[in-house]
Specification:
Length: about 260
């Protein structure tokens, strides 16, 4: 049985004070929610240390939105895997479409980041997904396969042990237009089968999150799908009540399915 995982990607939002307030609100909002869903928040890098302090004693875990491929040296402006680990980060989002698009990160660089995180004992959250044009051209599976293949080639299927994949169709991110549960399930099933061809055990255990306009209204029907193990949430993670409702939906959907 896979534990569902819900990650809040705060992107470029917040302040020191907001970080303190949001975590206080989130802790309150999560009070009566079943703990079988893992909850991660990924604030901006400068607030990670503060966030780590604020989550202490709760079951909220810390995530980061990026990492550099290098561990130390003359790389101005970067943050290493060891630095993130040092301040208590466990999950690191890599390959997000906003970084692929605005920072020109390609599959090769992302595969290197994946390797650096595994080496540090951290959990990569590998984002993959197609553009609107690629979906319309029926290339969704081909695109997802290529993005996974970059890691498989570099590190083999074992690298996916204790790692996370987030399927995020680019056309669904920040648009208010989520993939339908059937659309998302079809791609999640494809991803799991793709990894199963290399290692069935790891494929069975790997968490595959859905991301792209997940909110408190559509979360439950997404999570009820057999291959959707939670969500990577952007906008809706900035409202703590809403984010907690999404966590609750994940905890309940997976409880129902295992009973
Ligand atoms: P969204 O973002 O929930 O605002 O669509 C998701 C993401 O970018 O991870």
């Amino acid at each position: 049985m896979r534990h569902p995982l819900v990650i809040g990607n705060w992107k470029l939002n917040g302040s020191r004070q907001v970080t303190i307030e949001w975590i206080k609100d989130l802790r309150k909002a999560l009070t009566n929610i079943n703990k079988n869903c893992r909850v991660v928040i990924a604030p901006p890098t400068v607030y990670l240390d503060q966030a780590n302090h604020e989550i202490s004693g709760s079951h909220i875990l810390l995530g980061a939105q990026n990492v550099d491929v290098n561990l130390s040296g003359a790389f101005t402006g970067e943050t290493s895997a060891e630095m993130l680990k040092d301040i208590g980060v466990k999950y690191i989002i890599i390959g997000h479409s906003e970084r692929r698009i605005y920072h020109k990160e390609n599959d090769k660089v992302i595969a290197k980041k994946f390797a650096v995180l595994k080496e540090a004992g951290l959990v990569p959250v590998l984002c993959i997904g197609e553009t609107k044009e690629e979906r319309e051209a029926r290339q969704t599976e081909e695109v997802c396969a290529r993005q996974i293949e970059a890691v498989l080639e570099f590190q083999g299927a074992e690298a996916f042990n204790s790692s996370v994949i987030a399927y995020e169709p680019i056309w669904a991110i920040g648009t208010g237009k989520s993939a339908t549960p059937a659309q998302a399930q079809a791609v999640h099933k494809f991803i799991r089968h793709y990894i199963a061809k290399q290692n069935a055990n790891i494929a069975e255990r790997i968490i595959i999150q859905y991301g792209g306009s997940v909110n408190d209204k559509n979360a439950a029907e997404l999570f009820i799908q057999p291959d959707i193990d939670g969500a990577l949430v952007g906008n809706a993670s900035l409202k703590m009540e809403t984010f907690a409702m999404i966590v609750k939906a994940a905890a309940e959907a997976k409880k129902i399915m295992s009973s």
